[in-house]
Amino acid sequence: MAISRDKKQALVEELTNLLSTAKMTVFAQYNGIDVASLQQLRRAAREQNVTIKVVKNRLVRVALGKADNLKDVTTTDMKGQLLYAISSEDEVAPAQVLAKFAKDHPELVFAGGFSGEGATLSAAQVTDLAKLPSKNQLIGEVVAQLLSPVNDVTNALSGNLHALLDGLAEKAPAA
Fold it and tell me: Same structural domain for residues 69 and 23?
């Protein structure tokens, strides 16, 4: 069913806003995936602050042309039925959400992506990006590394303190 020119213009404006503020956009082919499964994908994506859009590639190209930071994005990989995963908060989340969904639905195949700065990513690069730990996991690892010396000193002092208290308890006269 064809949509009216006004609806197309509104959709292009919405896409332009989404894409211009996005840190990462990943697109994938979804041939053979039923509507119920796509709804599951949308729910899972929403939990990660990722927006899933199923839009004609031509409208996405128009929206890219209107976004100042994405005018030079290469769109040669945007062929066939594609869905777009867009995140304005995390660079890795769109790829991870789609990769997790693709484990149960092998019909979903990465086609490419582009960063908020306009760098084009191949399907292989998007796959590698999906394997990275999330932003929160990386922050947790850095904090653990920073606290490691503090924990080591605390454990060392605590061991010596226990030995001192045990020694004092042995020397104290029994009451």
Answer: yes
